[in-house]
Structures are given as structure tokens and as C-alpha cells.
Amino acid sequence: MATSGCLAPAEVVTQPAPPLLEGRAGRAEDDVSRENSDGDAKAAALEAARAAAGGAPEALAEEATPGPSDERLKAEAQRVLDDWHRAAALGDDRRYLDHFALDAVFMGPDPDERWDLATFSSYVREAFARKENWSNEPVDRHLIFGPHMDVAWFDEKLDSGGYDAVRGTGVLRREDDTWRIVYYSMTYTIPFEIGPQVVQSVKALLGSR
């Protein structure tokens, strides 16, 4: 018999619960029983899958294949970075700067180069107005995406024409249905063999500033 917490004490209740309520209570008990049974079956299936994969959740994750939407987002990230470099080569400041998030930071190869977007935008417009375009052709790139496909980390090797050992590292963030650059750092790579000489040259130069 179904009872409610707002009823009088049990000894003064003389009317049985209406058949409709009894039917609902019975169905509710059946639903709970079925849910418990389904939950037990799902748990058993998950344990069996983990056992088949050697008990390691990582093994299950490696077997999962990304859906079409993930592949599309990855391809879009590649296209955004390619178009960003292309805009720099063409001297298209509006197109180039539009690929940045508003809170973006750009790190140049000089020790003092750390630009917020507002300062960097002024520098870019002045440079492109003087036809000082930047040619950095990506020759190799690696991207790592976050679990929700809304952030990506990347590194890339660039051929800058005069010096083909430039490396760029950065972060992309998904916003306004596109990828935007939140952080980018450009550096010159130095072979170990000439590292000590380069370090001494840098120290001498910085000491003279």
C-alpha cells in the first residue's frame, strides 16, 4: 500500500490507496527494477570491455576513432594557420590580424618581444604599409587537441627564406565558430654544435644594449 509523509498516523488511515495510485506504485517499482537491471548489465559490459583491453582505460581510448566533426575541426585548424601565414606573405594586415583572439600574445625571436594584440596590431600595420611582408612557409606541423575539441596546441617548422630553421609554437582556441590564435612564439633554432658560440655572441650583444 502506498502512503504519503503528509498522511495522519497509520492507525487512523482506514481507506486503501485508490487503485490508480497502487498501479502507479507498482509500475514505479517495476521501472526501478528494470533500471537496476539495465545498470547492472551496463556495468558488466564495461568491466568485460576493460578486461578485454587489459584493464587499462587508455587502451579503450586509443581504440576510439574520432567522428567526422572532430576531423573537420582538425582540418579547419590547419587551414587557419596556413591562411594566417599566407596573409603575412601577402601583407594583408586585416586578414592576418583577424586570426588572433582579442587576448592573444605574440612572442617574437628578440628577447624583448612580447606583444599584446593592440600593440602588435600597430606594429603589423606599419610593417605591411612599408611592404615589409613576412614569408614563413610551414614545412612541418604537429597539433594536439583538447578533449572537447575547443583548444589545440601546435608546433611547426618554418622556411623563412633567409633562415630555414625557424620554429613556431602556439595555442588555438575555438570561438565564434572558428579557430583563433591565443598564443604564438617564434624562435630561431640553433644546432648544439654552435650553441656555445651563439650564446657568447648573444651575451655580448645584450651587454652592449
Automatic annotation (TrEMBL):
Stretches the record annotates as Disordered: 1-71
InterPro entries xrefs: NTF2-like_dom_sf, SnoaL-like
Basic and acidic residues: compositionally biased ranges: 24-41
One Pfam short name: SnoaL_3
SUPFAM superfamilies with a match to the protein in the record: NTF2-like
Compositional bias segments (type: Low complexity): 42-64
Residues covered by the SnoaL-like domain: 79-186
Highest taxon in the source lineage: Bacteria
Name of the molecule in the record: SnoaL-like domain-containing protein
Organism: Saltatorellus ferox
